[in-house]
């Protein structure tokens, strides 16, 4: 599945090199959901998320042909572009409930956030995610991916909130290792 | 300070005082700032990998127009549909519905609330056990919500509002909740549709149904 995705992505990039918009459509079909979901999760606004998605793919149209495999997998590279676009857009918004988090502000999310320039190895994150016990994956998906609260998740799963919190903590501790390693590796 | 404070903050589980304390600490502590940055990266990576939300169809059309000038440019599609009012949807629930849920059996240590709405199709019952604090809610007639939205159950007394959790809504438009609630006589129960996920849930949304606890 992943191999077929990679093959299609490379076909898409080849087409971009020929200035063929169909190549961009291939990449959009593969990653449009991912870019839009990321932008939406941070901006909380369908219109803004759509703008960011357009910008990212327009950027890809121009910069895509310059991607090379030494920079890491294509989707990891695209993830970095999408994060940049999302956080840049976020900074243009009035502070307040940034990221939907009460009390989040620009100072906490400094302009030179080093993690934005680090390429996170998504393939590794994904493989590590798969090694987590099913119940931890479930909690991670409900809280981190879908943005439910601990309380909602506990109620949905029919378990105490404490159980949800401890599953989440275990899962995040396991995954944190990846990001820390990435940061030690520095900017690629 | 523990990293778990970060998780509690991000999931909105800190009290106002804990939040202030945590944020003051965060502003001064590079280690906690690192933890935040790491956590945001990780959250972003998981959202990107799972890609739970589908972009509107207008997104690709707009991109295509920008990169492929050979095609005529379309007028930008209005996004109004994306901001569809939930309040309207709740009212617009279709007319077919089944028989009302069976009335619960009352004991002396229980309080009951009848849940009603301006839409007569929506009605239900809540039973609160004052000894165990266990609350059972059954309601029917609630409209199906778009993906990423759900119904939440709140208790309200004066200006105190507390979210109890999400309702489990079935295809038959019947929904239920079973869980703990520290409520009593004089409390009102409110059901409101909300966007699950990233929306901040600090205040009540539009009301789909409500009712007050009265001694039986
Ligand atoms: Zn600290």
Structure commentary:
- The complex is a heterodimer of chains A (188) and B (216).
- By secondary structure, chain A is an all-alpha fold.
- Chain A folds into two domains: 2-115, Rna Polymerase Sigma Factor, Chain: A (Orthogonal Bundle), CATH 1.10.1740; 124-181, Orthogonal Bundle (Arc Repressor Mutant, subunit A).
- Helix content of chain A is 69%, strand content 0%.
- The longest helix of chain A has 25 residues, at 161-185.
- The model of chain A is unreliable at 182-188 (pLDDT under 50).
- With 216 residues, chain B is of the alpha+beta class.
- Chain B folds into two domains: 4-50, no CATH class; 108-215, Superoxide dismutase, copper/zinc binding domain (Immunoglobulin-like, Sandwich).
- Chain B has helices at residues 4-10, 16-28, 30-50, 57-67, 86-91, and strands at 110-116, 123-129, 134-140, 149-157, 160-166, 168-169, 174-180, 188-195, 209-215.
- In chain B, strand 2 and strand 3 (134-140) form a beta hairpin.
- The longest helix of chain B has 21 residues, at 30-50.
- The radius of gyration of chain B is 22 Å and the shape is flat.
- Chain B starts with a helix and ends with a strand.
- The relative contact order of chain B is 0.13.
- The model of chain B is unreliable at 71-107 and 196-202 (pLDDT under 50).
- Chains A and B meet through helix 2, helix 3, helix 4, helix 5 and helix 6 of A and helix 1, helix 2, helix 3, helix 4 and strand 5 of B.
- The structure holds zinc ion.
- Zinc ion binds at residues 1, 25, 29, 31-32 of chain B.
């Amino acid at each position: 599945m992943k191999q077929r995705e990679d093959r299609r992505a490379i076909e898409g990039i080849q087409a971009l090199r020929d200035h063929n918009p169909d190549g961009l459509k291939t990449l959009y079909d593969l990653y449009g959901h991912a870019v839009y979901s990321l932008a939406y999760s941070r901006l909380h606004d369908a219109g803004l998320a759509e703008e960011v998605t357009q910008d990212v793919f327009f950027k890809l149209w121009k910069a895509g042909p310059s991607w090379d495999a030494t920079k890491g997998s294509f989707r990891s590279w695209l993830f970095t572009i999408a994060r940049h676009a999302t956080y840049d857009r976020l900074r243009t918004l009035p502070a307040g409930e940034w990221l939907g988090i009460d009390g989040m502000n620009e100072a906490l999310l400094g302009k030179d956030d080093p993690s934005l320039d680090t390429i996170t190895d998504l393939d590794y994150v994904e493989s590590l995610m798969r090694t987590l016990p099913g119940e931890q994956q479930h909690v991670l998906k409900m809280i981190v991916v879908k943005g439910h609260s601990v309380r909602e998740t506990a109620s949905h799963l029919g378990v105490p909130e404490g159980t949800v919190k401890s599953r989440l903590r275990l899962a995040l501790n396991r995954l944190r290792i990846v990001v820390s390693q990435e940061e030690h590796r520095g900017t690629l | 300070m523990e990293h778990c404070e970060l998780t509690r903050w991000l999931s909105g589980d800190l009290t106002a005082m804990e939040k202030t304390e945590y944020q003051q600490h965060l502003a001064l502590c590079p280690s906690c700032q690192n933890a935040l940055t790491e956590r945001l990266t990780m959250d972003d990576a998981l959202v990107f990998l799972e890609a739970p939300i589908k972009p509107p169809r207008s997104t690709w059309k707009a991109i295509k127009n920008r990169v492929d000038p050979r095609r005529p440019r379309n007028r930008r599609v209005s996004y109004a549909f994306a901001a569809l009012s939930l309040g309207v949807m709740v009212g617009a629930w279709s007319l077919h519905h089944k028989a009302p849920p069976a009335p619960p059996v009352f004991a002396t240590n229980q309080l009951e609330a009848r849940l009603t709405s301006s839409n007569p199709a929506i009605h239900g019952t809540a039973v609160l056990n004052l000894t165990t604090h266990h609350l059972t809610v059954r309601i029917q007639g609630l409209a199906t919500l778009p993906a990423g939205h759900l119904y939440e159950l709140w208790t309200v007394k004066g200006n105190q509002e507390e979210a109890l959790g999400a309702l489990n809504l079935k295809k038959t438009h019947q929904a239920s909740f079973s869980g703990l609630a520290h409520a009593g006589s004089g409390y009102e129960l409110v059901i409101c549709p909300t966007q699950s996920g990233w929306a901040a849930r600090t205040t009540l949304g539009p009301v789909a149904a409500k009712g007050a606890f009265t001694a039986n």
